[in-house]
Amino acid sequence: MSDFKYAGVIGGGAWGTAMAQVCARAGLAVTLQAREPEVVEAINGRHENPIFLPGVALEEAIDATTELSDLAPCDFILAVPPAQHMRKTLEAIRPHLRDGMPVMLCSKGLEQGSLSLMAEVLRETIPDAAPAVLSGPSFAGEVARGLPAAVTVASPDEGLARALAEAIATPQFRPYLATDIVGAETGGVLKNVLAIACGISEGKGLGRSAHAALITRGFAEMTRVAEALGGEAETVSGLCGLGDLVLTCSSPQSRNMSVGLALGQGQTLEEALAGKVTVAEGVASAPAVRDLTRKLGVDTPICEAVAAILAGEVAVDDAIRGLLHRPIRSEH
Hints:
CATH class of the largest domain: Alpha Beta
Distance between the termini: 43 Å
Strand content: 5-15%
Radius of gyration: 19 Å
Strand order of the largest sheet: 3-2-1-4-5-6-7-8
Number of helices: 15
Largest sheet: 8 strands, mixed
CATH topology of the largest domain: Rossmann fold
Structural class: alpha/beta
Shape: globular
Oligomer: single chain
Number of strands: 8
Order of helices and strands: EHEHEEHEHEHEHEHHHHHHHHH
CATH superfamily of the largest domain: NAD(P)-binding Rossmann-like Domain
């Protein structure tokens, strides 16, 4: 059994709230830090998050706060801010953490500018933290409602990964273990970009055959990037890579796929994002992924096409035409 009894969650969005719900159901004491006072008030007063997770009854054990300092007594931290805000968030929480505090990164993205994965951002901001990553096919609403899901918990310290997994596991939320933190993160980053591509295909009415081709060739891109970064192909063939890719590319419930769907139906990016209170991480990650893969010398034509569409460099139809007219090559 894990010795962890008290979880601190940073981020009161849909996924942060869902992870607080998981921790509470696992029997942990939970403090959830959110930036929005109205979210904190609703969670503490009515046990709901009507802004980011409407219609879900939250566990009464979840205590919400706007203050990062209130997380100081926790046994471990789940960091769930948007990826592009991860550095600022970790810098803010650092003074309140004990040396060696386990920090489990639950955001999927690549930092613009530095082209860093979230574990690299953690290493640079809180060097003595014990790092872990949680990733896998999991829609926040389903997890929060208690529907079954399985995820990967990765840490270079296998004992830490096991302790964290045991702490948050419930019959409805099943973590699997990994030590390859790079592979686990890479899968989470690229699946968001590839989901935009699948949404575009859906919006254009290109059919299920094209959808399957995008997932399969997108998975090949994911594997190449993970290996180039020092990760393992075996890792991305699991829940945190292939599993997450299949889920995110298969339902408009995915924020990233819904953006692609709107683009495929002729909307501009501004129109596709209008009115959304949740973050589609793939929109921010796509240009960083393109910069990173060019730097690594890795061929990622689907991710390149998505980045070009989002940047307004190429029209959707021209991007599709470009992918379909690529030279014939070996599949592997």
